[in-house]
Write a structure and sequence with these properties.
Blueprint (H helix, E strand, L loop, with lengths): L1 H9 L5 E6 L3 H16 L3 E5 L8 H8 L5 E3 L9 E6 L11 H12 L4 E4 L21 E5 L4 H4 L3 H5 L1 E5 L5 H8 L2 E3 L2 H9 L12 E5 L7 H12 L4 E6 L4 H5 L6 E4 L3 H7 L5 E6 L7 H10 L3 E4 L1 H5 L5 H11 L2 E4 L3 H7 L1 H4 L6 H12 L2 E4 L5 E3 L5 E3 L12 H14 L4 H19 L5 H6 L7
Parallel strand pairs: 1-2, 1-4, 2-3, 4-5, 5-6, 6-7, 8-17, 9-10, 9-12, 10-11, 12-13, 13-14, 14-15
Antiparallel strand pairs: 15-16, 16-17
Helix pairs in contact: 1-2, 2-3, 8-19, 9-18, 18-19
The structure holds ligand NAX and potassium ion.
Length: 455
């Protein structure tokens, strides 16, 4: 009923609704929608692959509700004015689409016909968002109970069009028990921890964030993180700079403070100050021994390891993971796809795993919260909790955008948020900042558009 209502609402001027029904319960949903459309008086045609007699159980009962004729899918010739209702495969897709279905998809694509997908666009794997052989690209998708990973993870998300989640009366406790510790990243996930941050409080209580600068010729990335940290609410931000980059940094800083930290010895001395609440290491820092030394010294604190600080451990990751486990700090790592593959090559190469499962495996192995970046960023904790982010506009993919994100995480850690919530809230705020900054945003305008945490 929800599918037929969406079809009539979205395409009142359709000359014909074409319902494509598959061999399982997704097809069953299609027959129920077809019966409802027929009852409304709409012009209608139904096509199905293979032998309809094979339908079993609920799908067979659903088939019986539709009294009209069912044609072989091979005979479907798309016409201008058709609106396709794709009820071929949903949650039960287990392998690549059959040839006859792939051919029907390409005929529909050639005509650029609008498609309404039932549950998932056929061809999209609901668990991973992967395309199995081919897939419809829907204008609108009607799913039931809850969004599935395949609606949010790429490339699945780009095939769904607008997503409608229709409540079919399954109790929330059952949905939650099946979803486990997986959520869409909304403020509800971390707001409880954000509420504790009182903006009226003393600047030391709002947390002191330290960002490490790279050498003289690559200082910009760290300054972006530092500025983002300040705008995101850290009370104090200090840029820790090697001596040769002090002048370059000083020329560009006002509210952010500057401190000379050259060697590991300087850092060891400075770390005695427990008011230093959180640390950002990696943006523009340089890949090498110094990055490793600094990171290992910081594993017991609240720490974001990004970019070069992630890559630096490519061949010596056990050293880092063991230290994180031993020191028990609040550590967040923020790899993009390339960095993820460098640090977790065996996990990255496992094609059976979804992005969520990859992030969870990496979190477990590293003992850190993993923020696996992309337009479908996943944040995963060693405990098995995970969120998928969905508010990021595509124009966030701009130079320096990741450095801004890192700074926001740092600000949250400095204010005492636990690592998972700090990372999830930062991804969300970063997405919001991108929306506020609008198309054509640069990293600088992104920093200016970081809004206060929602109340
Ligand atoms: N609680 C639920 O599970 C609900 C399910 N519903 C509908 O039921 C659907 C899931 O039903 P099913 O589990 O029957 O799964 P599907 O209808 O998605 O497909 C399963 C059928 O297709 C076959 N199949 C899978 N991949 C194939 C491939 N590549 N080539 C050829 N055949 C293939 C399977 O052997 C099986 O016969 C959902 O997507 C949704 O539309 C809804 O009616 C609401 C409630
Ligand atoms: K479908």
């Amino acid at each position: 009923m929800a599918v037929s209502a969406a079809a009539l609402r979205l395409f009142p001027s359709a000359t014909r609704f074409v319902v494509l029904c598959g061999p399982g319960n997704n097809g069953g949903d299609g027959y129920v929608a077809a019966a409802a459309l027929a009852e409304s008086g709409a012009s209608l045609a139904v096509f199905a692959p293979g032998d309809v007699g094979k339908l079993k159980g609920d799908a067979a009962r659903a088939r019986a509700t539709y009294a009209g004729e069912v044609h072989a899918i091979e005979t479907y010739e798309p016409r201008t004015g058709d609106v396709v209702i794709d009820a071929l495969f949903g949650a039960g897709l287990v392998r690549d689409l059959p040839k006859a279905v792939q051919e029907a998809i390409s005929r529909v694509d050639d005509r650029c016909l609008p498609v309404i997908a039932v549950d998932l666009p056929s061809g999209i794997d609901g668990r991973s968002g992967a395309v199995r052989g081919a897939s419809f690209t829907a204008t609108h998708t009607v799913t039931f109970m809850a969004a599935k990973p395949g609606h949010l993870l790429l490339p699945g998300r780009t095939h769904c069009g607008s997503l409608e989640v229709f409540d079919i009366g399954i109790p929330d406790r059952l949905v939650r028990s099946r979803a486990g510790d997986l959520r869409i990243n909304t403020p509800a996930v971390w707001q409880q921890h954000a509420r504790g941050l009182d903006p009226a409080t003393h600047k030391f209580k709002r947390g002191h964030l330290v960002v490490f600068s790279g050498p003289q010729t690559s200082t910009g990335a760290a300054r972006l993180s530092a500025m983002a940290g300040l705008n995101a609410g850290a009370g104090l931000v200090t840029l820790a700079s090697p001596p040769e980059a002090l002048a370059a940094n000083a020329a560009h800083l006002t509210a952010v403070m500057l401190k000379e930290i050259g060697k590991a010895g300087d850092l060891a001395e400075w770390l005695k100050d427990r008011r230093l609440g959180a640390f950002v290491l990696g943006p523009g820092f340089g890949v090498g021994k110094k990055a490793r030394e600094f990171a290992l010294m910081l594993c017991g604190r609240a720490l974001v390891l990004d970019a070069d600080a992630v890559t630096a451990f490519m061949e010596r990751r056990t050293e880092l993971f063991d230290r994180i486990a031993a020191e028990g700090g609040q550590v967040v790592m923020t790899p993009h796809e390339g960095e993820f593959a460098r640090l977790f090559p065996e996990i990255a190469a496992d094609t059976a795993l979804s992005k969520i499962e990859k992030a969870l495996a990496a979190a477990k192995l590293s003992h850190a919260v993993i923020l696996y970046k992309g337009s479908d960023t996943v944040v995963a904790a060693p405990s098995g909790r995970a969120v998928v982010n969905a508010n990021a506009p595509p124009w966030l993919a701009t130079a320096g955008s990741g450095d801004v994100l890192t700074g926001i995480i740092g600000a949250h850690l400095a204010q005492g948020m636990p690592a998972f919530e700090a990372a999830a809230a930062a991804v969300w705020r970063h997405g919001e900042a991108g929306m506020r900054a609008g198309r054509g945003t640069t990293a600088e305008t992104l920093v200016e558009n970081i809004a206060p945490l929602p109340e």
